[in-house]
Amino acid sequence: MTRWRPAGARPDPRVRVAEPLDELVWARTVDAGFADTENAPPEDGLALSRAFFRMGGGAVPVLAVQEGVAAAGMLDVDGDVAALFATATRPAYRRRGLQAALLDFRLRMAQERGCTLATIETDPGSASQRNVERAGFRMAYVAASLLRP
């Protein structure tokens, strides 16, 4: 990460660290973004997202706010490695630079914490892959996802 340079002089003001009271809205935002819908599942269907929010340790949930909570993601730091994950933007807020703002914010935090390497997962060929490559990431490998009905 020593070669990464921030997108701007300052972090995007739309992005902030999530507070404990933001847990439910953060989880709903992540789930709605991944489901490609504005309607998040009911509260009892948010267990995985809520578990990510509560990870603790070096993990930090972040929110992007534009006319309401529009996007969310996680940063987890382990030694000098930053993992960026659970990044999702609600469909109505896409194409407004929020994913890039979330990436920039978390990479700044990672550098402040001494990270020299950052990882992120995304679907190959997606808009997300293009966004993370613009932020300086390069594809390391493609993994197969298998599903059994």
Q: Which keywords apply here?
A:
Aminopeptidase; 5 strands; globular; 4 helices; 22% strand; five-stranded mixed sheet; alpha+beta; 149 residues
Protein model, in words:
There is one protein chain. This protein has 149 residues and is an alpha+beta fold. It has a single domain, classed as Gcn5-related N-acetyltransferase (GNAT) (Aminopeptidase), CATH 3.40.630.30. It is 29% helix and 22% strand. It contains four helices and five strands. It has helices spanning 23-35, 47-53, 98-112, 127-134, and strands spanning 15-17, 59-65, 69-78, 81-89, 117-120. A five-stranded mixed β-sheet has the order 1-2-3-4-5. It is globular, with a radius of gyration of 15 Å. The model has no long low-confidence stretch (mean pLDDT 85).
Précis, in short:
The chain is an alpha+beta fold and 149 residues long. The protein contains four helices and five strands; from the N terminus they run E-H-H-E-E-E-H-E-H.
